[in-house]
Amino acid sequence: MADRDYLDWPFLEPRHRALALELDAWAADHLNPAHGKDVDAACRALVKELGGGGWLRHAVGGAGRAIDTRAICLIRETLARHAGLADFAFAMQGLGSGAISLFGSPAQQEAWLPRVASGDAIAAFALSEPQAGSDVAAMQCAARREGDEYVLDGEKTWISNGGIADFYVVFARTGDGGGEGGRGSKGISAFIVEAGTPGFEIAERIDVIAPHPLARLRFSNCRVPASKRIGEEGQGFKVAMATLDVFRTSVAAASLGFARRALDEALGRARERAMFGKILADFQLTQAKLAQMATGIDAAALLTYRAAWMRDQGKKVTKEAAMAKLTATETAQQVIDAAVQLFGGQGVVSGETVETLYREIRALRIYEGASEVQLLIIARELLASGGH
Fold first, then answer.
1. What is the helix (H) or strand (E) element at residue 215, kind and residue range?
2. How far is CA 168 from CA 38, 128, 159, 381, in A?
3. CA distance 8 to 109
4. What does the pLDDT look like over 167-209, one tens digit per residue?
5. d(Cα 285, Cα 244) in Å, to the nearest integer?
6. Digit-coded pLDDT (tens) for 20-45
7. With contact defined as beta carbons under 8 Å apart, do 216 and 157 qualify?
């Protein structure tokens, strides 16, 4: 394994270093990157194991306890380095319950957060729709008030943990957002919808190149008590963006974990692979590629832990989180691709570590805001501030 000197960077405190090293040792004993074909069962088991190990409590805030962004980032980086599905399981518990941690009522927090932290309840975050992914303001899923209930109608898609979650934080349009045709970001609200609620069904399971539970959801006359609304009516866009602001930086951290594992694998390959009477590491082309990989990882890590540190200081991090996610995900893709190239034909064999990483990293450049969206966010923030 490559060195962990970055744990001594001033963005992190001694407790963060201790956390990362403790988790690294735990993961080496408990996690296996390989899993069977039943990904649902594997994910459920990982949530229970992460809960039992005490790691999921770091993904959950509420009840006066702030979310430690740096801890979340270090955990995601470490888990991703060991097993991609373990990182997924941890991240979705945090993202799925994040709205409750940040905006939930005391009753909502008491009902769900302890169960999420223990691994006894699986969470999901249901924001995207077939025609409203990056453009959240185009949301069409609607919730109308009827007495002490809301009635939900519409669909959500690309929902992680879809099909295995015990509850879903669902965003739906409750009013006219002021945009064309009633669209816009102001008329959205957030709701807790439990699995098995009448009128709520899993319409389709979705298979992707790095397997994990994913689904399209359908709501048809689905009645949800008004007490399950998170925050005020019309506050849903704020709830969603605040939740994503916490976890967007952690996507960058997961990318770092994948990239660091790829560099470890590439270094091992370069030192061992015999070629033309030498080893692969003896060639300057190899050395240059390894240098580029390591430099890119450090640059991405600096941006990632700067953003995490800033958020933990209570600062606005919209621009910094976007910079971190953009740089880390794009860099990780390049690093992993380079590792596959250094492995040659062996690098594309199904189940080889670098081949698995190649499939794992691709989605991170899309979800929680595609790279192109991050560029727009950075530019918007620069223009609004009048400079860098």
1. strand 214-225
2. 22, 13, 9, 31
3. 34
4. 999 999 998 654 433 455 779 999 999 999 999 999 999 999 9
5. 40
6. 999 999 999 999 877 778 999 999 99
7. yes
**Residue 261: DSSP 8-state:** H
State yes or no: is 368 an active-site residue: yes
The catalytic residue among 155, 360, 368, 372 is 368
What residues contact residue 280 under an 8 Å CB cut-off, 6+ apart? 269, 270, 271, 272, 273, 274, 286, 342
331's CB contacts (< 8 A; 6+ apart) are 255, 259, 296, 297, 299, 300
Task: Give the tokens for residue 70.
Answer: 């740096």
Q: How far is it, in rounded angstroms, from Cα 327 to Cα 371?
A: 9
User: What are the tens digits of pLDDT across the range 258-306?
Assistant: 999 999 999 999 999 988 999 999 999 999 999 999 999 999 999 999 9
Question: What is the Cα–Cα distance from 157 to 196, expressed in whole angstroms?
Answer: 18
Determine if the pTM surpasses 0.85. yes
The rounded distance, in Å, linking the Cα atoms of 78 and 245 is: 20
pLDDT in the model for residue 4: 80
Q: What's the residue count for the chain?
A: 388
Write down the pLDDT at residue 145: 96
Between CA 323 and CA 284 the distance in angstroms is 31
50-64: pLDDT as tens digits: 999 999 999 998 666
Report d(CA 379, CA 371) in Å as an integer. 13
